[in-house]
Amino acid sequence: MSEQEFDDVYTRLCYALTDVGEARTPVVLARLVLLLMKQVDDAAAISEAIDSALEGSHTA
């Protein structure tokens, strides 16, 4: 995926989440993650992505 494609898809996601509203955003994101996990079909890559997502997300 090119940088432009990445930016376009990210922008689409942002608009979609705005459209569904704050209350439904967590459900949509959870569903998106599950769908992408099925497409990636690589447990190690998914575990690495989870670890990366968690870095710096813990509050003290």
UniProtKB/TrEMBL annotation:
Domain of life: Bacteria
InterPro entries membership: DUF2783
Protein name from the UniProt record: DUF2783 domain-containing protein
